[in-house]
Amino acid sequence: MIERLLIGRSPAMRLVKDQIQRLAGRRTSILIHGETGTGKEIVARALHDLESRGAFVPIDCSVIIETLMESELFGHSRGAFTGAYEAKRGLVQEAHGGTAFFDEIGDMPKNLQVKLLRVLQEREYRPLGALAPVKVDIRVISATHRNLAEEVREGRFREDLYHRLNVVCISLPPLRERSEDILPLAEQFLIQFGGDHEIAPDALEAMHGHDWPGNVRELKNCVEHMIALSNGRLLRRGDLPASIGMPSRPVRAFAAVAAVRRGAAVLKALPTLREIERAAIFDAVAQTNGVLALAAATLGIGRTTLYRKMKEYSSGVDISPSESDLTVVVSAPCTSPVIAGPAPVSDNSSRTQNTGETVNSDNANSGGSSAPDLG
Ligand SMILES: Nc1ncnc2c1ncn2[C@@H]1O[C@H](COP(=O)(O)OP(=O)(O)OP(=O)(O)O)[C@@H](O)[C@H]1O
Ligand SMILES: [Mg+2]
Predict the structure, then answer these.
(1) Nearest CA to ligand 1 atom 8
(2) Where are the domains of the chain?
(3) CATH number belonging to domain 2-173
(4) 10 Å Cβ neighbour count for 315?
(5) Ligand 1 atom, smallest distance to 188 CA
(6) Are the C-beta atoms of 172 and 40 separated by less than 8 Å?
(7) Which of 57, 240, 265, 329 is a Cys-bridge partner for 352, taking CB atoms 3.0 to 4.6 Å apart?
(8) CB 281 within 8 A of CB 253
(9) Residue whose CA is closest, atom 6 of ligand 1?
(10) Confidence at residue 189, expressed as pLDDT on a 0 to 100 scale
(11) Region 116-121: what's the mean pLDDT?
(12) What is the pLDDT of residue 336?
């Protein structure tokens, strides 16, 4: 079932699927972290579907107007405020017996964070204007694109709530760090959009060279775009949206240098050689899923040189490879012990073991090192 719900064969996605299956049937609170479009909501729905208990109620904290949020979430009694002619059940009550999915939880105002904490701890809350508390039984799944640990450090998010939400953290790496998923996802979207189209090798090559800042959502839109504009069955490079035919960042940087050598005077923000090297190194590591031996071979340098340069360019991020498997994995910003997915570059440091499991050292390194900026 999980294979149908979630497409992806990269080690990172296999770990995510494994985690979801292990969590099936449990009411554990789960925090899902990932960039926009990486599939946070689809993972939350999969977690709920496998449990198949009650309703799945999405609550997007980033779109509900702050002044209305309390009554939207927790409801209100009749006459609680001007215009409250009827009592209203909140979204939390709608989720009773099922799952409440708090999307963009980092946007929840602090006064409501206290109320949510009470729901998690006491299994009750008080609707606006009501005297008596209401009992509620919900499973809480939340999602964020932010580094919540950082939000806690900055005082914007309650630490006690953070720990309650983050009993297990599922981290979804960006699509650019799991390029094995591009083809199966694209094939799935071809089926979803109907027809019998096929993606030509030149288009696929361009898709593999793209950064996918909008992640899986961007890929889905891309496939839809190609189908809509294509003439025949075969979807070619020319059918891709304009932004995707562009070569990847290091290739663009090399092209820029080559253009200068040819005497072109068009380049305003020319990258330095150091920036080019840094981008090439981290792109190679990302595309080889952190396998240093492979990344070094791709770059045509020795593994020790690669490791030294990575340390140099990472400015303080602990990227130590394990002695045995020559693999580097730096975790996404979760602090709970169960974490998915090799993510070559991120805010916090961790070391891999042979199992591919990530040992998160965020707690030990609560000062937090900033992610290397590849841009
Ligand atoms: N592994 C996957 N398999 C199939 N479809 C996926 C997968 N990941 C994402 N998608 C699809 O990509 C789109 C974006 O996914 P989703 O809405 O879950 O992302 P998100 O992380 O919640 O994004 P945002 O942060 O912008 O809300 C959806 O149409 C979803 O169905
Ligand atoms: Mg979402």
Answers:
(1) 39
(2) 2-173, 177-244, 249-360
(3) 3.40.50.300
(4) 10
(5) 4
(6) yes
(7) 329
(8) no
(9) 39
(10) 96
(11) 96
(12) 39
